[in-house]
Write a structure and sequence with these properties.
The chain is mainly beta. The protein has one domain. The strands form two sheets. It has a two-stranded antiparallel ribbon with strand order 1-2. A hairpin with a 2-residue loop joins strand 3 and strand 4. The radius of gyration is 17 Å and the shape is elongated.
Length: 65
């Protein structure tokens, strides 16, 4: 299963809604996947490759190698 190594963001499940004539007529299951990137990260003085979501990269929660 896809999961961010920093914030543990993972797959979410819900319903996709089909809207016709201002009524929600049909619901079908769908999934939202996190935007994961494979990145080389410096952790405890070592270089590791891990999957990190784009939000953690943008917020600077990870120091890239």
């Amino acid at each position: 299963m896809a999961k961010c190594a920093i914030c543990d963001k993972s797959v979410n499940h819900g319903n996709k809604l089909s809207i016709t004539r201002s009524h929600i007529s049909k619901r079908s299951p769908r999934t939202w996947k996190p935007n994961l990137r494979s990145v080389k990260v410096v952790e405890n003085g070592e270089t590791k490759r891990m999957y990190v979501c784009a939000k953690c990269l943008r917020d600077g929660k990870v120091k890239r190698a």
